[in-house]
Specification:
Elements lengths: L1 H10 L17 H19 L10 H14 L1 H33 L1 H14 L8 H8 L3 H25 L3 H9 L4 H36 L7 H10 L3 H29 L5
Helix pairs in contact: 3-11, 4-5, 4-7, 4-9, 6-7, 7-9, 8-9, 9-10, 9-11, 10-11
């Protein structure tokens, strides 16, 4: 009898409960949400509930995008914007990660630089554009500088905060096993800080896109910001929203790239 009861208990399958609130991929939810909002806007403009003076038909915006691509003008505006974004963000993010790691590791640098970063962080970066024009000229230098400075401070804050949040018990364990300082930084601190650094990178690149548009609205002949400014001056809503859609797609692609980087670098989290 006891053997039978033990066998029945062993046959009962206990569901796994250790998922740890891990997010489950729902790839269709995002596109379905976008399509529903676009369909609602299209229906509202056709039905007359939405005035075409305030919101153009999404189908008209799509037609504008197709015409823009066929004429080649889209690439004339997009390539300079991508170059400015890549150069400025690379400078700002690279310097921000380096400074943030140094602040997190060295007490003297933390004491010297944290007050400086705290003073620079709340300054509206767009307000500094005239100053950057004076310093670097109205051409590409001022645009690179604005994007780099705008991405530098949030990256620093996110990076040294991520370094601070690394589990100290892991560092003590590495020290107890006799690991060198560099080995602890390379094998424990940087991997442990990487989730926070990548989360900060999402914010920094979103800020970079915003500052890109602002920089291109001053003294740029080509660029998505210049295209949007021209469309707004002509009150051409189809062209204006076409530029906004391009920026939105750029943000989505940037987020997807960071997501792929997270999956590659943070696969150890399970």
């Amino acid at each position: 009898m006891a053997d039978t009861a033990a066998g029945m208990a062993a046959a009962v399958e206990v569901p796994f409960r250790g998922g740890g609130f891990a997010p489950r991929p729902k790839r269709w939810v995002g596109p379905a949400t976008f399509l529903a909002l676009i369909a609602l806007a299209e229906w509202g403009t056709w039905a007359g509930w939405i005035s075409p003076l305030t919101l153009p038909r999404p189908s008209a915006v799509v037609e504008t995008l197709i015409a823009l691509a066929r004429s080649g003008l889209m690439f004339d505006h997009l390539l300079p914007s991508l170059t400015r974004l890549a150069v400025g963000a690379a400078l700002g993010v690279g310097a921000g990660i380096a400074v943030g790691v140094l602040i997190g590791l060295f007490s003297h640098l933390r004491a010297a630089l944290v007050p400086l970063v705290a003073a620079l962080f709340p300054i509206p970066k767009i307000a500094l554009l005239p100053l950057f024009v004076i310093w670097f000229g109205i051409d590409e230098g001022s645009k690179y500088a604005l994007i780099a400075f705008g991405t530098f401070t949030p990256t620093v804050v996110a990076t040294f905060g991520a370094v601070d949040n690394v589990d100290r018990s892991l560092i003590r364990m590495g020290q107890s096993f006799g690991l060198s300082w560099w080995s602890i930084v390379r094998k424990i601190v940087l991997p442990g800080a990487m989730p926070g650094i990548l989360s900060g990178l999402r914010i920094s690149l979103a800020i970079a896109i915003i500052l890109l548009v602002a920089a291109e609205m001053l003294g740029a002949r080509y660029g998505i910001g210049a295209y949007i400014l021209e469309a707004g001056a002509l009150y051409d809503l189809e062209r204006l929203f076409a530029g906004v859609v391009i920026l939105s797609l750029l943000g989505v692609l940037t987020s997807a790239a960071i997501g792929a980087l997270e999956r590659r670098l943070l696969g150890w989290r399970g």
